[in-house]
Amino acid sequence: MHHQPATVRRVTIVDVARHAGVSTTAVSKVLRNAYGTSSQMRSRVNAAVDELGYRPSAAARALRGRTWTLGVMLPDVRNPFFADILDGVAEHLDGTEYQLFMTSGCDDVTSEARVTEAMIDRSMDGLILIAPVSRPAHLERVGRTVPTVVIGRHSRSTGFDTVNDDDFAGAGLMVAHLAGLGHRRIAHIEHRETDPVRLAEMPNALRADGYRHAMLSHGLGEHIDIVSTGYTRDGGYHGARILLDRPVPPTAIFAGADVVALGVLDALTEAGLSVPGDISVSGYDDITLAGFRPISLTTVDQGGHRIGTTAIRLLLDRITDPGRPAARVKLAPTPVVRATTGPPR
Amino acid sequence: MHHQPATVRRVTIVDVARHAGVSTTAVSKVLRNAYGTSSQMRSRVNAAVDELGYRPSAAARALRGRTWTLGVMLPDVRNPFFADILDGVAEHLDGTEYQLFMTSGCDDVTSEARVTEAMIDRSMDGLILIAPVSRPAHLERVGRTVPTVVIGRHSRSTGFDTVNDDDFAGAGLMVAHLAGLGHRRIAHIEHRETDPVRLAEMPNALRADGYRHAMLSHGLGEHIDIVSTGYTRDGGYHGARILLDRPVPPTAIFAGADVVALGVLDALTEAGLSVPGDISVSGYDDITLAGFRPISLTTVDQGGHRIGTTAIRLLLDRITDPGRPAARVKLAPTPVVRATTGPPR
Questions:
Q1: B270/A143 Cβ within 8 A
Q2: Interchain CB contact of A200 with B (< 8 Å)
């Protein structure tokens, strides 16, 4: 035999009114600190509120004002770089009234539209969108409807704030490191991107641009070799397989993201190649796993934690002052040299 | 010069009423399909709704019924095992009206209370709580207020459903594998747990129990060696350091979770020990990284994806029928032997 659980009903304003022996309008007035309530009325209502444990629900508050709810849209919960950003956001919110809710698995225009709409529909006070792929007009519309900060998109929109690292410069730093070790055949694995707007705004596209530009400026233009897959471990695995099949394979692979570099290491292990003895590998992001000794990945630190704290500071500021000019924050990346890069054979 | 973004105001019921030239009460009646509205009134209101693009907000709907919002509480966004569960949940929700929101960073009673309260306060239709550490009375209260499924807690409560793998049996499978390879000094790293209730209900405690029981049944009682740290990479790292400092170190370390095993591998790499040549290592969970070739971790597959789909099916079922008896689902774990375990020296 099982118990039949009884559902506990939320105490409503109607219960408070009945308990206090007054009208719901009177209760509402007292709760809103409106004029026209007697001190006797106030004490009766407040006593009933206390006795019944009444708390106005977020849904009811949402009809009046703030919901103290913030939304974060992530493209992929499996990319541990986003956890660094979230840590920065959560740390800054600690001790405030705000509650943060995340959504993940948004990596196309349709699901991003659905998720941003869902967040607006739930009257969230502000949104942080991480590496969105939506068209600028959609982001602009979201930003004009609710205070929004976009991370990982070099947008020129005036409707929201942006926080990025300097992806173009970061890629250049990694090419300089590899060229400095004596590599010439340095290949790059990028995230496939065909949309012309995203080619100008997405971090992945700017990293590929930075790679190309740095190769040229190091006199390595003839060795430019870009494989287009995706910013996932699978993308890195398949990209490395393609590069290993070249008539003359590269001596170094610069993956556009650390998760991609993990896939590259997977393919090299399978091929029986040693790193960096046979081939050097580097990534981008500096996820915590990059510092894990069995991996020890050379990478570019884009300061995920700092990106997170910067974004949440901007968002709270924008919630207070939705009309202020859009902020464009670009943080400086730093190379982190570990054990997966060395001189070529 | 910056543009001053104009905030686009949501169309409200007041706008609809004004546009239709009727009262807000009349609009509300039409929208609720209430009695007492003329066909002329209905067509005027519906025309105004269409012309203004009015949609009742989730906040307003919440005051009447479902919000089509589900909440998932995660202890830690960095543990990739939870991503497998989320994949299973999201796959099952695909194509439904439901929107899923997650919170992470809840690993103590206080923050769990805050988060569950926040989810209830936002009128979510149902909750999935993953490995909560709250007291049974709190979980019971949550389950009686909103349809709830708890994953990763062997609870006997009647107020919510539970989905678990058989952690006791899974730990026994791993001890059997290691003992079968010839290991006798098999140590275990557990998550520190002192609360008597959680000692009976938490997966980590049941895995430690399963280890103890299996060691005894294999005649290895004198070699039982449990280090209590935490289910994180740091916990694995420090646990391994303690075990390596023993006068006679173990020949195999069975970590209670894959993230813990990663920390063990980190410490062994630092100590210059080879795996499994010098020492065997195994985990629990079968996170996707366990199959990553440079790691190739022997572990126990608890089927995270299946746990996720099972939980969301139960939750949708419970939303439809909140009074039905509590379901207790226990899934069978399977050992996955990869490259980190071998015979002792």
A1: no
A2: no
Residue of B nearest to A98 (CA): B118
Query: Could you report the predicted ipTM of this complex, rounded to two decimals?
Result: 0.80
**Measured between CA atoms, how close is A145 to chain B, in angstroms?**
5
Count of alpha carbons within 13 Å of A48, Cβ hemisphere only? 24
Nearest-CB residue to B123 (from A55, A57, A104) = A57
Residue B149's φ and ψ, nearest 5 degrees, are -120, 130
Q: Which two tokens stand for residue B207?
A: 């895995």
Per-domain residue ranges for chain B? 13-56, 69-165+304-326, 167-303
For chain B, what's the residue count?
345
Token pair 């300061």 in the structure block, residue: A303
Whether A5 and B122 lie within 8 Å, measured CB to CB: no
Task: Say how many CB pairs under 8 Å bridge A and B.
Answer: 168
Q: Which residue of B has its CA nearest to A144?
A: B7
Does B11 lie at the interface with A, CB-CB under 8 angstroms? no
A148: which strand partners? A127
Asked whether B104 and B76 are in contact (CB, 8 A), the reply is: yes
DSSP state of A76: -
Q: In what helix (H) or strand (E) does residue A70 lie, and over which residues does it extend?
A: strand A69-73
The tens place of each residue's pLDDT in chain B, 345 residues long, gives: 344 334 445 677 788 889 999 988 888 777 766 566 788 888 888 888 878 877 666 666 555 578 899 999 998 888 888 989 999 999 999 888 899 999 987 778 999 999 999 999 888 999 999 999 999 999 999 999 999 999 999 998 899 999 999 999 999 999 999 999 999 999 999 999 888 988 999 999 999 999 999 999 999 999 999 999 999 999 999 999 999 999 999 999 999 999 999 999 999 999 999 999 999 999 999 998 999 999 999 999 999 999 999 999 999 999 999 889 999 999 999 999 999 999 999
Query: Considering only CB atoms, which chain B residues are within 8 Å of A4?
Result: 323, 325
Contact status of B126 with chain A (Cβ, < 8 Å) = no
Distance CA B296, CA B340 (A): 7
CATH number (1.10.260.40, 3.40.50.300, 2.60.120.620, 1.20.210.10) of B13-56 reads 1.10.260.40
Q: Collect all residues with Cβ–Cβ distance below 8 Å to B84 and sequence separation of at least 6.
A: B287, B288, B304, B305, B307, B308
CA A194 to chain centre: 22
B98, B104, B121, best to mutate vs chain A, most A CBs in 10 Å: B121
d(CA A81, CA A284): 10
Query: Does B69-165+304-326 carry CATH code 3.40.50.2300?
Result: yes
Decide if B233 touches A, using CB distance below 8 A: yes
Q: CB of B334 within 8 Å of any CB in chain A?
A: no
Q: What sign does the dihedral B112-B113-B116-B118 (CA atoms) show? A: negative
Would you call B15 helix, strand, or coil by DSSP?
A: helix
